[in-house]
Description:
Helix content: 40-55%
Number of strands: 0
Structural class: mainly alpha
Radius of gyration: 31 Å
Largest sheet: none
Distance between the termini: 57 Å
Amino acid sequence: MGGAGGGEASVRHPGRATHSGVRYVCTVDKKNALRAGALASGTTLMMLLMSSPALALTRDDGDDPGKGLSVIETLGLYVATPIVLFLIIAGLVVVLDKSDKQPKRT
């Protein structure tokens, strides 16, 4: 049974790939890993080079910064305001929900 003349081994199932017996332990080869590393390091280097003016200690011509924010103003602007906006949007979604309520099963 199952010899070269046919039999169970030659039955093909539509939609199924044949089992080749090859197991892939590591699918990333060295070339792709080096390419990904070069891309990541190049992107990081470019971001650092482009962000260097943000770390400058000297003022530019025409620079006119305003007064700094207090701790309360900073917390209100960057913590409380997003939380309040989230709660407003979530509340509107819950209140204006038009989906049908599922009937209770007994």
